[in-house]
Write a structure and sequence with these properties.
The protein is α/β, with parallel strands linked by helices. 45% of the residues lie in helices and 19% in strands. It is built from 13 helices and eight strands. Helix 2 packs across helix 11, helix 4 (80-95) runs parallel beside helix 6 and helix 8 crosses helix 9.
Length: 268
């Protein structure tokens, strides 16, 4: 399937959101609120839940399920208070030795004046730094759009999983085309050049596993997709749960810093 076709699937209005998966995968989800600095931004949902009786901290970018909710959640584009809220609960997870699961689904961090005034870049950078050295397992699942630092701010993980109709990239195809060619109408062409699909990223070793979706996308069978995500998350956690703290952080650091081993793949 062409990259632009996948982009259209992932942007479908009926595409399942993070909360749809949380409801189907986890038990006893309790949402937690606020960054203790400014506000409770609803573009990121944080909380506690259980999976096979194991407690997890959940951090999830959340798009709206309809127009009203999209406005309330800023169309899934987090403000800096969302990233600070996420970091607050990731540090709490570390304190209580809870593994962390994040769900990525955003067009990017919100680029508004207020967000910049409140330190959008600093909030993203702080998350990258702090996530790199958290001493609990971190599993990330890319479920929809994963664009720019807005996605990576909750994506520094020991295992990065991705639905096969999701996309993960430095920015949107429209943004890429606007910057490179000064023509946003070339977004379809940009999507192919950007190598943003799960298949491409698995080949580049940017992600660790592709999670299968039903034909036509996750929206065709949310329960089946949830089941597939659940199994992949359990497998990833079982690989990580017995790794000691020092080795866990060292391996995570190497995962994101050691690009030399990917050179041959990238140059093809």
């Amino acid at each position: 399937m062409k990259a632009w076709e996948i982009v259209k699937i992932v942007r479908a209005p009926n595409r399942p959101t993070a909360l749809d998966y949380i409801e189907n995968i986890f038990d006893d989800f309790i949402e937690l609120h606020g960054d203790r600095y400014f506000a409770d931004d609803k573009a990121i949902v944080c909380g506690l839940a259980k999976l096979n009786e194991q407690p997890f901290t959940i951090i999830a970018e959340q798009k709206g399920r309809n127009t009203k909710e999209n406005i309330e959640r800023n169309f899934g584009m987090p403000n800096p208070e969302s990233y600070r809220k996420a970091l607050r609960f990731m540090k709490q997870a570390e304190k209580f030795n809870r593994p962390i699961i994040t769900f990525i689904d955003t067009k990017g961090a919100y680029p508004g004046i207020g967000a910049e005034e409140r330190g959008q870049g600093e909030a993203i950078a702080r998350n990258l730094l702090e996530m790199s050295r958290l001493n609990v397992p971190i599993i990330t699942v890319v479920i929809g759009e994963g664009s720019s630092g807005g996605a990576l701010a909750i994506g520094v993980a020991d295992r990065v999983l991705m639905l096969d109709n999701a996309v993960y990239s430095i920015l949107s195809p429209e943004g890429y085309a606007s910057i490179l060619w000064k023509d946003s109408s070339r977004a379809k062409e940009a999507a192919e050049v950007m190598k943003m699909t799960a298949k491409d990223l698995y080949e580049f070793k940017v992600i660790d596993k592709i999670i299968e979706e039903p034909k036509g996308g996750a929206q065709k069978d949310v329960l089946l997709t949830s089941k597939n995500i659940k199994e992949a998350v359990i497998d990833a956690y079982n690989e990580l749960k017995d790794v000691n703290t020092k080795e866990l952080t060292e391996l995570r650091y190497k995962k994101f810093r050691n690009m030399g081993e990917y050179k041959d793949v990238i140059e093809k």
